[in-house]
């Protein structure tokens, strides 16, 4: 789905944001998920904090290997440097996201109250209920984001950050008061190793990639490699490689006029028939039918 993202994601899966305001590191934006097109936000991480409100439909988030389903009754706060992805379930969905740094707060408040929680290895995400006051702020922010049918992701055009800052403050206050320090967390060694493996795949997916290539590259055992992928992507390494190739292929099918055979070859599939088989299994239609229906 990342055809029109207001962010740039490099080969290590880190997002690099471009903020509209020089004074504030805050960017609100809407993501729309077309369920039939299999829209999704691919696995990634960023240095910024993130707040998400699913205001239409349901979205499944995978955060450091844990699956969480979020609806309009929930608000999701994701900590820095956490691997996460998201996709709609049951039907189309829309979410309002706010990515931000804490540079609008006094350094003493950050140091004394917020950093101890953010730096706690147990703090991966926080889920809190949508209540009246928060709902008012979210709805107001949402009303300022333009709707453009051709775009999957739209940024706010507002330069008024008071409501956004007030919303962030209320959510952070809730977390500071109620976070109990109990959660599973991803070890730094696992984060660095998985990031290294994913980078290798994203740089070499056009070629034949075997598990031995991954284990040799990262100097780890086959068992540890399989455990990492199963834990944090819910897939085996080979399944992830195929899924990533299909992700790139789907993008090319929709946004280019390249022959399907060329796309198959450039995405690292061994044969055209295998590519069409995998594409059909994942997207429930052939690449040509998919292009005819969703070509941009």
Blueprint (SSEs and pairs):
Blueprint: E1 7-9, E2 15-17, E3 26-33, E4 40-44, E5 49-63, E6 66-70, E7 74-78, E8 84-100, H1 107-118, E9 125-129, H2 132-143, E10 153-155, H3 162-178, H4 188-204, H5 211-218, H6 222-233, H7 237-255, H8 260-266, H9 272-283, H10 287-294
Antiparallel strand pairs: 1-2, 3-8, 3-10, 4-8, 5-6, 5-7, 5-8, 7-9
Helix pairs in contact: 2-3
Question: TL;DR?
Answer:
It is built from ten helices and ten strands. Helix 2 packs antiparallel against helix 3.
Structural description of this entry:
- There is one protein chain.
- By secondary structure, this protein is α+β, with helices and mostly antiparallel strands.
- It has helices spanning 107-118, 132-143, 162-178, 188-204, 211-218, 222-233, 237-255, 260-266, 272-283, 287-294; strands at residues 7-9, 15-17, 26-33, 40-44, 49-63, 66-70, 74-78, 84-100, 125-129, 153-155.
- The strands form two sheets. Strands 3, 4, 5, 6, 7, 8, 9 and 10 form an eight-stranded antiparallel sheet that branches. A two-stranded antiparallel ribbon has the order 1-2.
- Strand 1 (7-9) and strand 2 (15-17) form a beta hairpin.
- The two termini are 12 Å apart.
- Residues 1-7, 149-153 and 155-159 have low confidence and may be disordered.
